[in-house]
């Protein structure tokens, strides 16, 4: 069955870094545009970053530009989010999303907490 499994979240101090991973299975990963979203307590889910099918084009929310980098490895069916210079306002549950054709898939999320 379709699975998106995020990992790499945790507690980090302001200014620190984390690398999130999302391992996909059960569908043709390379046919899907992949994105990372996040949802903070009491707030709506927001788009963080998107990468196209071949990885040649990326886009970012203004709040993370210059700090976060999305990448993918189609041979490993995995998408990554490198997060640097983390701020307390980056605290949220981070979700992986796959879109291809008429479907959209979500992972279960991984918690990122930025606090001293």
Description of the molecule:
This protein is mostly beta strands and 116 residues long. It is 0% helix and 53% strand. It has no helices and eleven strands. The protein has strands at residues 3-7, 10-12, 18-25, 33-39, 46-51, 58-60, 68-73, 78-83, 92-100, 103-106, 110-114.
Spell out the blueprint of helices and strands.
Elements lengths: L2 E5 L2 E3 L5 E8 L7 E7 L6 E6 L6 E3 L7 E6 L4 E6 L8 E9 L2 E4 L3 E5 L2
Parallel strand pairs: 2-11
Antiparallel strand pairs: 1-3, 3-8, 4-5, 4-9, 5-6, 7-8, 9-10, 9-11
Brief summary of the model shown:
With 116 residues, the protein is mainly β.
The count of β-strands is 11
Biggest sheet statistics: 7 strands, mixed
SSE-based structural type: mainly beta
Low-confidence stretches: none
Radius of gyration, in Å, reads: 13 Å
- Count of DSSP helices? 0
The level of helicity is under 10%
Question: Which geometry do the CA atoms define?
Answer: globular
| Elements, N to C (H/E) | EEEEEEEEEEE
State the main characteristics.
globular, mainly beta, 4-stranded antiparallel sheet, 116 residues
């Amino acid at each position: 069955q379709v699975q998106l499994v995020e990992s790499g979240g945790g507690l980090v101090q302001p200014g620190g870094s984390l690398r999130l991973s999302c391992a996909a299975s059960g569908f043709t990963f390379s046919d899907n545009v992949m994105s990372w979203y996040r949802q903070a307590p009491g707030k709506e889910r927001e788009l963080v970053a998107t990468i196209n099918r071949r990885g040649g084009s990326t886009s970012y929310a203004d709040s993370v530009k210059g700090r976060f980098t999305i990448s993918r490895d189609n041979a490993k069916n995995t998408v990554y989010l490198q997060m640097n210079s983390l701020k307390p306002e980056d605290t949220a549950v981070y979700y992986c999303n796959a879109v291809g054709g008429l479907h959209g898939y979500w992972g279960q999320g991984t918690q990122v907490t930025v606090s001293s």
